[in-house]
Amino acid sequence: MGRVSEIPIGSPPVPPGRHAAPSGWYPDPANGAQERYWDGWQWSRNTRPSARPAPPRIAPYQPGSFPGRARTADGVPLAGWWWRFLAMMIDYLILAAVGGIVLAPIYLRFIRAMSDAIAAAATAAQTGQPPPPLAATDLLSASDQLIVTGVTVAIALVYFVMFLRWKGATPGKLICGLRVVPVDQGLSRARLAWQAALVRAAIWVLPGLFSLLAVITVIDALFPLWNPKRQAIHDLAARTQVVAVR
User: Fold this and answer.
1) Residues 17-44: what's their mean pLDDT?
2) What Rg do the C-alpha atoms of the chain give, in angstroms?
3) How far is CA 171 from CA 88, 154, 165, 176, 232, in A?
4) Phi, psi torsion values for 245, nearest 5 degrees
């Protein structure tokens, strides 16, 4: 016989049929890794290692444990694409509001020029004349266009770099419970390096300067959908990942 062990309090259930079950070794209801001897009437204290491997023990689900979600190497769940998209939209709304305030004088001039152009077109239509020709610089001068572009890019770069450096996340990401960390260091609470913040912000912001490069921004935004580590192009360049902190 195998080793002798105490039968747990509250004897385990008997095999099917109880009295009709022949004596022999059966899986121990108290321990799946061993077998217990049934003497034909009751369980004995004799056990032996089970010939079959014990089924894997599955930890109970804990709320917030994100079962099945991709994770960093140290076990922190990665941000879902839709949460990243929502954070991006919040950030751009904030940037649009800030840019609108800073560039308000130029936008007011643009609105007045547009109103004058519409009024001139309406007057020409009433008199049966063709509308006056209108060039882009008639609405917004070349210098104003340059200022708008430069200020918009500068605000975006400062916004992304500073928040990533000091908070590890932009306001949009903070609202959505996301954080930017070095790749596979989800538990890190250290400040993001200046280089990582600058590279990440530059690759995300600068392609927007040129219409032909806008497709890069679109691909960049969609890249986490198929990247195994859920990294965008600017994440790959900066060696970062976006994790969910709540």
Assistant:
1) 75
2) 33
3) 9, 17, 13, 9, 19
4) -100, -5
Report how far apart, in Å, the C-alpha atoms of 142 and of each of 138, 139, 145, 172, 213 are. 9, 10, 5, 33, 21
CA pair distance 88, 163, nearest whole angstrom: 14
C-beta separation of 35 from 23 below 8 A:
no
Query: CB of 66 within 8 A of CB of 20?
Result: no
Give the torsion through C-alpha atoms of 204, 210, 212, 217, to 10 deg. Answer: 10
User: What is the Cα 136 distance to its own chain's centre?
Assistant: 40
The string of pLDDT tens digits covering residues 135-164 is: 777 788 889 889 999 999 999 999 999 999
**pTM passes above 0.70:** no
Cβ of 123: how many Cβ atoms within 10 Å? 12
CB-CB neighbours of 169 under 10 Å = 22
Q: Helices (H), strands (E): how many in the chain?
A: 8, 5
Tokens standing for residue 178? 């996301």
